[in-house]
Amino acid sequence: VNFSAPVIAQSVINDLSMVVRQIRRVAEIAGQNNDEYTIVLLGEAIGFYEKYIWFFRAYLTPTYGPCS
């Protein structure tokens, strides 16, 4: 089993992406039931997880130039 940092980071991205997909499904159901509070709450959760997905993707992106 490969426990290198890039492999773990990609695994975290995959897992968090799955969580976001599930939250979006629940938010869709909340929308169908006019549950505005739940929609707002889930929207905040999506933003939280998407931020960390972005962080991990940025970590995996090679950098070039004087700052690398």
Structure description:
Helix content is about 80%, strand content about 0%. It has one domain. The chain is elongated and about 50 Å long. The protein is mainly α.
List the helices and strands and how they pair.
Blueprint: H1 5-32, H2 36-60
Helix pairs in contact: 1-2
Give the structure's gist in a few sentences:
The chain has helices spanning 5-32, 36-60. The model has no long low-confidence stretch (mean pLDDT 94). With 68 residues, the chain is mainly α.
Descriptive key words:
68 residues, mainly alpha, 2 helices, 0% strand
What is the CA-CA span between the terminal residues?
29 Å
Rg of Cα set: 16 Å
* Low-pLDDT stretches: none
Structural class of the secondary structure composition?
mainly alpha
Number of DSSP helices? Answer: 2
Main β-sheet description: none
Total domain units: 1
| Global geometry | elongated
Order of helices and strands: HH
Q: What value does the average pLDDT take? A: 94
Strand fraction band?
Answer: under 5%
Number of strands: 0
Share of residues in helices: over 70%
